[in-house]
Write a structure and sequence with these properties.
The chain contains ten helices and eight strands. With about 450 residues, it is α+β, with helices and mostly antiparallel strands. The protein has a domain of about 290 residues: Outer membrane efflux proteins (OEP), CATH 1.20.1600.10. The chain is elongated.
Length: about 450
């Protein structure tokens, strides 16, 4: 007998469907490294984009300040109708006489220009101010980029942590379910009490609840990373970087980190630029008290001629060039309090710069000490896991030989899981403190 072709094709078709579904499931979680997330965040982060636009606007502000050095040129034109001119020969309360006008039209056009020769270096000071502001924007952009890098690293490590927790809890749930089956058999046989069964069920229920919470936290971390990268919230991610501090990552001494922070930290550069800006504000106020000297010129075409006597009912041209000197006397007493305010703000910014240095030293010291602390803790936790594993093995064996209580076994199980949690947490914390050091030194 020949086999039906459907009996051959149908299994192949079903196998193909299963294979496709398996591929989709595998591809659901996208493998991704922290470096890749950083690259995508640098392009798609809205915070970074906003600061980049602010820096670009600062560059235009510098160009605008420089353009003020060019002469000012203006043009205006007018056209109108003159009313009859009343003359009150007998006083304003009596009827006036009117001067007859042959043409009531009046029109004119004027071109004027002004070129600043000296204004107390106010223009140069303003250009310096805008240049400092632009540099300040660049440093703020650097600081934002560092902050985003650190937030991405923090979220990436958080995702790694929760995914590792999920593996441990799932493994623990499987072991607890297998243990519960044995306890149920022993209870059915009258070997163990009902309370033992209830305690084992309660612990299993708690672990399943904890697993749900861990999965939710992992999904929240994935969403946060996807937002950083500009991707869909629902995209599943699979971190591929190893957990913990790696040998190729270099750690410096505390003093080296301090020196690097003073030289390279954007926060330090921002504080320095703010001091410079305050100093330029004082210079600008002093420039307001100095005279202004400039060249001016007017070229006027007008009708009728009423500027010079005798007046003419005809159009005329008039050009004037010369030197203009102006001085604001009121600035002597108007700007007194402005100058005092500027001095106070300058001193404030100097103290703020010192405060930034103090905060950097504190942050670096804290991160450095925690890094060393994590390193020591990891070594101890490896030993704790060995001890907890052996303790659980012994109590698991003695319980089923009726030589120990269920509470001792469940406590040993919890202690082993807790030690595993603490080891992963310590490795993650050590890596995060390493990134904190890089952020504070401007190297992240």
């Amino acid at each position: 007998m020949h086999s039906s072709p459907y009996k051959i094709v149908l299994p192949l078709f079903l196998f193909a469907i299963v294979s496709v579904k398996a591929q989709v499931t595998i591809q659901d979680s996208i493998p991704i490294s922290l470096e890749k997330v950083w690259e995508k965040a640098a392009v798609n982060s809205k915070e970074i984009k906003m600061n980049q636009l602010h820096t670009e606007s600062g560059a235009e502000a510098v160009k605008n300040a420089k353009s003020k050095q060019l002469p000012e040129i203006g043009f205006n034109a007018n056209y109108g109708k003159l009313a009859n001119i009343p003359i009150y020969n007998n006083g304003i309360i009596h009827h006036p006489d009117y001067i007859p006008l042959e043409d009531h039209s009046i029109y004119g056009a004027t071109i004027d220009a002004y070129f600043e020769i000296y204004n107390g270096h106010k223009l140069k000071t303003n250009i310096k101010k805008e240049t400092v502001k632009q540099q300040l924007s660049k440093y703020m952009e650097e600081e934002t980029s560092l902050s985003v890098h650190y937030q991405v690293a923090q979220t990436y490590l958080k995702l790694q942590l929760f995914l590792e927790f999920e593996k441990l809890v799932k493994q623990n749930i499987y072991q607890n379910e297998e243990r519960l089956k044995l306890i149920q058999k022993l209870h059915t046989g009258g070997v163990v009490l009902k309370s033992d069964l209830l305690r084992a069920q309660l612990q299993l229920s708690k672990q399943k609840t904890a697993l749900t919470e861990i999965r939710n936290n992992a999904q929240l971390a994935m969403q946060e990373l996807n937002i950083f990268m500009g991707d869909s919230d629902e995209q599943k991610l699979k971190p591929i970087d190893p957990i913990g501090f790696q040998e190729d990552q270099k750690i410096m001494s505390y003093s080296d980190y301090i020196d690097s922070a003073i030289d390279n930290s954007p926060l330090q550069k921002i504080a320095k630029q703010k001091v410079e800006l305050s100093k330029l504000n004082m210079t600008a106020l002093k420039a307001d008290k100095l005279p202004r000297i400039g060249l001016f010129g007017d070229y006027n075409y007008s009708y009728p001629q009423i500027k010079l006597y005798p007046y003419e009912n005809s159009p005329y041209l008039l050009g004037v060039v010369g030197v203009k000197l102006s001085y604001s006397i009121s600035s002597i007493y108007h700007d007194v309090h402005k100058e005092e305010e500027a001095k106070i703000l300058y001193e404030e910014q100097k103290i703020a710069q010192e405060n930034v240095q103090d905060n950097l030293r504190k942050a670096i010291n804290k991160a450095y000490k925690h890094y060393v602390e994590d390193q020591e803790k990891i070594e101890e936790l490896h030993l704790n896991i060995k001890q907890a594993t052996e303790n659980y093995r012994i109590l698991n064996q003695t319980y089923f030989n009726q030589l120990t209580l269920i509470t001792d076994l469940l406590d040993a199980d919890t202690q082993l899981l807790q030690a595993q949690f603490e080891l992963i947490s310590a490795k993650t914390a050590q890596q995060l403190h390493y990134y904190q050091l890089l952020k504070n030194t401007g190297d992240l």
